[in-house]
């Protein structure tokens, strides 16, 4: 277990100033998002902040890589809204804890490596979709509640909001040209905060979302019946939440790997996420997963170590306990401006430059994944559909590559030299290559440049042998690799074939 819980992995010289400032910036951007999603789901506001603290601290210390920020993410919370409405908060806590158990199992069985199956167009679509979601969620901040109905700001409140957002964006863009010693996003938040307080500007603040004062997360065992019916109820929600969390988390981890040029541990991240969600279930948290927006804020602030995530989590706890009255006065416009810049930085603009060089099916997958991510906010479903379509396209293209070189040797034996993989998608084309009635009495199928990959391929080989056997002709298989022969041995009793002696591979004589 040492590989999962070594606190000092990715050893490097830590820039304490950069890490602390990055952590403070992350905390400022995480608070309104966690509050917003908690309220959206019908949870008490503090449940969102507790999740941000617990997820942030546990994964910062034990997670799969430095720089990755976790919290009460909307991607996982959205999954639980239906359960909250139908059965209440206690069942939500139970589902969150069960999701954590499932995530730990994924990590222990080292299943995190399957994220490698996600193709680049799916990654582009995932990231672009998230960038659009981040941007659109900020647009919602330009609305206010009047008589229980959400309406757009108008008049002076709208102009003030736009001006403050523009000021924030300008500082984020131009301050790095002066110095990079302090994160531009943190400077922007502080400057806008001072301007609003100093000039007495009336604008939307964190307090308009919810109060954030409270105590330390209390230990709480979910008050639910411990029976099979309860498990049946919460398991589907827990499974979906675990899947969404791991999908977003592992994709975000890969993205951070690319940005930093380092390598994280997907399995370790699964275990850390799971542990944090179990704690959420028993300490009044709504659960969560890695947050790509806050992670990118962290990286853009210069963080490359675990300290910033720890600082961010502890800052949120300190704010809950002591500093809530001050933070509640923070103008939402400053946070909106920072998050808009994060959305712009998140979007893979390079996808526009290379789109005319991409195959049409990759373009389709990219747009589809981005569309599903934006419309349904279901990251796991978007990625799953993208991977399935990419796999089917690959299977179709591979199926078309199988071909056969045919000739008759001086002994009158006809040879079929097969090129390309023989699998479920290519069996029909493979079968069409043979001229059973016009072939000589003895035929050799040479698999030196091919491979029998699955049961469909075995069945195709069996049907060919049966067709030749019916007309009294004999068929041999040549140049089968060790794994192909193993497949055939596993199918013993299902098919009957002749494997010709091959000195190179030392196969047994039929």
Share of helix, binned: 55-70%
The termini sit apart by 49 Å
Radius of gyration: 29 Å
What summary fits the major beta sheet? 4 strands, mixed
Uncertain segments? 1-8, 493-497, 501-510
Helix count equals 19
Gross morphology is: elongated
Which structural class is indicated by helix and strand composition?
Answer: alpha/beta
Question: What is the beta-strand fraction?
Answer: 5-15%
Strand order of the largest sheet: 5-6-7-8
Give the ordered list of helices and strands: HHHEHHHEEHHHHEHHHHHHEEHEHEH
Mean pLDDT: 84
Strand tally: 8
Give the key terms:
single chain, 510 residues, alpha/beta, four-stranded mixed sheet, two-stranded antiparallel ribbon, 8 strands, elongated
Q: What report would you give on this structure?
A:
With 510 residues, the protein is α/β, with parallel strands linked by helices. The protein has helices spanning 2-5, 16-41, 45-62, 74-87, 89-108, 120-139, 155-178, 184-199, 228-260, 266-282, 292-300, 307-327, 332-346, 350-354, 360-376, 379-399, 427-431, 455-470, 482-490; strands at 70-71, 143-146, 149-152, 289-290, 403-408, 414-422, 442-452, 474-478. A hairpin with a 5-residue loop joins strand 5 (403-408) and strand 6. The chain is elongated and about 100 Å long.
In short:
This protein is of the alpha/beta class and 510 residues long. The protein has helices at 2-5, 16-41, 45-62, 74-87, 89-108, 120-139, 155-178, 184-199, 228-260, 266-282, 292-300, 307-327, 332-346, 350-354, 360-376, 379-399, 427-431, 455-470, 482-490, and strands at residues 70-71, 143-146, 149-152, 289-290, 403-408, 414-422, 442-452, 474-478.
């Amino acid at each position: 277990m040492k590989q999962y819980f070594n606190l000092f992995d990715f050893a490097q010289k830590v820039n304490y100033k950069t890490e602390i400032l990055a952590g403070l910036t992350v905390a400022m951007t995480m608070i309104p998002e966690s509050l917003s999603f908690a309220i959206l789901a019908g949870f008490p506001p503090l449940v969102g902040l507790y999740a941000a603290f617990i997820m942030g601290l546990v994964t910062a210390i034990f997670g799969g890589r430095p720089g990755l920020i976790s919290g009460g993410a909307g991607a996982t919370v959205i999954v639980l809204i239906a359960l909250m409405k139908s059965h209440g908060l206690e069942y939500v806590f139970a589902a969150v804890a069960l999701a954590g158990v499932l995530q730990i199992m994924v990590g222990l069985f080292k299943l995190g490596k399957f994220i490698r199956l996600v193709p680049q167009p799916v990654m582009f679509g995932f990231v672009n979709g998230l960038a659009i979601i981040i941007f659109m969620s900020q647009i919602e901040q330009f609305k206010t509640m009047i008589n229980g109905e959400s309406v757009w700001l108008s008049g002076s409140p709208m102009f003030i909001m736009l001006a403050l957002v523009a000021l924030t964006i300008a500082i984020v863009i131009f301050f790095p040209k002066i110095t990079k010693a302090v994160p531009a996003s943190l400077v922007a938040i502080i400057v806008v905060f001072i301007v609003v307080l100093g000039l007495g500007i009336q604008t939307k603040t964190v307090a308009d979302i919810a109060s954030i004062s409270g105590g330390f997360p209390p230990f709480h065992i979910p008050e639910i019946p411990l029976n099979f019916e309860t498990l049946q109820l919460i398991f589907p929600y827990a499974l979906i939440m675990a899947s969404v969390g791991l999908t977003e988390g592992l994709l975000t981890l890969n993205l951070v790997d690319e940005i930093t040029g380092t390598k994280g541990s997907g399995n370790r991240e699964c275990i850390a996420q799971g542990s944090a969600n179990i704690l959420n279930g028993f300490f009044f948290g709504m659960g969560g997963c890695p947050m790509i927006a806050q992670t990118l804020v962290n990286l853009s602030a210069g963080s490359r170590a675990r300290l910033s995530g720890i600082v961010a989590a502890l800052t949120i706890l300190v704010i809950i306990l002591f500093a809530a009255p001050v933070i509640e006065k923070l103008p939402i416009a400053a946070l909106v401006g920072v998050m808009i810049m994060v959305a712009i930085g998140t979007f893979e603009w390079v996808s526009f430059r290379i789109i005319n060089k991409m195959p049409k099916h990759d373009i389709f997958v990219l747009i589809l994944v981005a569309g599903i991510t934006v419309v349904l906010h279901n990251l796991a479903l978007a990625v799953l559909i993208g991977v399935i379509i990419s796999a089917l396209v690959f299977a179709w293209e591979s199926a078309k590559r199988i071909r056969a070189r045919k000739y008759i040797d001086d002994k009158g034996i006809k040879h079929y030299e097969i090129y390309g993989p023989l699998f479920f998608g290519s069996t029909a084309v493979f079968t069409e290559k043979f001229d059973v009635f016009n072939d000589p009495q003895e035929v050799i199928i040479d698999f030196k440049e091919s491979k029998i990959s699955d049961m469909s391929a075995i069945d195709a080989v069996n049907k060919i042998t049966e067709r030749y056997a019916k007309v009294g002709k004999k068929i041999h298989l040549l140049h089968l690799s060790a794994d192909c022969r193993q497949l055939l041995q596993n199918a013993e009793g299902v098919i009957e074939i002749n494997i010709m002696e091959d000195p190179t591979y030392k196969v047994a004589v039929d």
